[in-house]
């Protein structure tokens, strides 16, 4: 695919494809790139935005997004046709960095992962990441950090990259969610029903940031207080630990909801489908991840989300910190009241989520100002 050079700012956003038909639902990185591209297109000084693949995987029509809406090219096709390269999902090596710098292009690091935690776990638990081949790029012209990453990882980024970073708006859109739920009954939105409720926990369970234990404890306290109101606790992304971790099994066997065969531990599921087919209430818990796509997907579809995410306490049903009793009280509140105002709740959630949408005026204005500041800086 050839790039058309236009007047105005030309922006590339890196992704790292691992498969020609890679799914959008295995992690949020590809979605993040598309959402950011959509937001930057609304900036008046931007002429074009392309997604730039940094791996050897070919770019084909098998990709799960519209290539007209989100043009996607290999780095070689983009390297001489962008004014700003935003490194998001695929890292640029020294040679590629040098090429961009010699052309006068700006290079931005867009930080949307919990890199400090990943590094810490790699070191402490001997989980290889980079070995002796670590490359830390110290030639970024700016570091953009999404809010939920700022607290835990900002200093990690700044010290190693020798540059101060800045917090930028979090961007989300229902575009991929809407496409996925088209074929689901009722568009996949929450449907009230009488009787006991199915409680769902969908934490990734791959590190300490989002782990299913506290949500399971919240479900347990709900079950102890209202056993007839709980049909089932479903914990996804937990099949492997339920088979292989004797510590996890021992902990779960302390719970009445498990002993009474009211809990199941399942494998991986697509969020929109599992919500639509098997869920009434979602219970979540986070450490240093106080805003993410999962919360917005759940709330946009009108499902009651019981959570402790401090950057969006106005969404769903918020409980404080690690207070399991408070979380159980919110679940019981959902059981007792949610169905009576389910339609209002869904519309309210969508109104609140509008602040994260790519066409939000304040969000677009902020990214426009970031680009202006970037171009005023001398190239590093």
What is the name of the CATH class of the largest domain? Alpha Beta
Overall structural class, as computed from helix and strand content, comes to alpha/beta
Mean pLDDT: 95
First and last CA, distance: 30 Å
- The oligomeric state of the chains shown is single chain
The domain count comes to 2
List the helices and strands in order: EHEEHEHEHEHEHEHEHHHEHEHEEHHH
CATH topology of the largest domain: Rossmann fold
Q: Give the low-pLDDT segments.
A: 1-6
**Count, helices:** 15
Protein name: DUF2827 domain-containing protein
List keywords for this structure.
380 residues, alpha/beta, Rossmann fold, 15 helices, 13 strands, 15% strand, globular, disordered N terminus
Produce the secondary structure layout.
Blueprint: E1 9-15, H1 29-41, E2 46-53, E3 72-74, H2 75-78, E4 84-87, H3 94-103, E5 106-111, H4 115-124, E6 142-145, H5 147-161, E7 165-167, H6 175-181, E8 197-201, H7 213-225, E9 230-235, H8 239-244, H9 246-252, H10 256-259, E10 263-265, H11 271-278, E11 281-283, H12 293-300, E12 305-307, E13 317-318, H13 324-337, H14 342-353, H15 361-376
Parallel strand pairs: 1-2, 1-4, 2-3, 4-5, 5-6, 6-7, 8-9, 8-11, 9-10, 11-12, 12-13
Helix pairs in contact: 7-13
């Amino acid at each position: 695919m050839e790039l058309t050079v236009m007047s105005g700012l030309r922006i590339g956003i890196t992704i790292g494809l691992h498969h020609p038909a890679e799914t959008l639902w295995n992690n949020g990185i590809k979605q993040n790139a598309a959402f950011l591209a959509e937001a930057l297109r609304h900036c008046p000084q931007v002429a074009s935005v392309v997604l730039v693949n940094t791996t050897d995987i070919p770019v084909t029509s098998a990709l799960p997004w519209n290539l007209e809406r989100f043009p996607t090219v290999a780095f070689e096709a983009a390297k001489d046709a962008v004014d700003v390269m935003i490194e998001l999902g695929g890292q640029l090596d020294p040679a590629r960095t040098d090429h961009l710098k010699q052309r006068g292009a700006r290079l931005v690091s867009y930080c949307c992962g919990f890199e400090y935690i990943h590094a810490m776990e790699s070191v402490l638990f001997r989980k290889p990441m980079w070995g002796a081949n670590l490359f830390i790029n110290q030639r970024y012209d700016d570091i953009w950090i999404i809010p939920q990453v700022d607290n835990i990882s900002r200093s990690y980024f700044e010290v190693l990259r020798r540059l101060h970073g800045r917090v930028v708006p979090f961007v989300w859109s229902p575009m991929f969610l809407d496409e996925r739920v088209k074929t689901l009954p009722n568009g996949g939105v929450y449907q009230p029903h009488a009787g006991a409720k199915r409680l769902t926990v969908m934490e990734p369970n791959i590190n300490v940031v989002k782990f299913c234990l506290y949500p399971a404890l919240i479900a347990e306290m709900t079950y102890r207080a209202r056993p007839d109101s709980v049909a089932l606790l479903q914990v996804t992304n937990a099949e492997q630990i339920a088979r292989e971790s004797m510590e996890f099994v021992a902990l779960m066997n302390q719970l009445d909801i498990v002993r009474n065969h009211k809990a199941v531990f399942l494998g991986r599921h697509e969020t929109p489908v599992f919500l639509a087919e098997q869920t009434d209430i979602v219970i979540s818990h986070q450490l240093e991840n106080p805003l993410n796509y999962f919360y917005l997907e759940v709330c946009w579809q009108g499902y009651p989300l019981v959570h402790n995410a401090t950057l969006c306490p106005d969404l769903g049903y918020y409980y404080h910190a690690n207070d399991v009793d408070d979380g159980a009280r919110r679940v019981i509140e959902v059981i007792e009241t949610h169905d009576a105002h389910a339609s209002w709740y869904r519309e309210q959630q969508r109104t609140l989520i509008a602040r994260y949408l790519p066409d939000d005026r304040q969000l677009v204005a902020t990214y426009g100002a970031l680009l202006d500041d970037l171009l005023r800086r001398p190239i590093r």
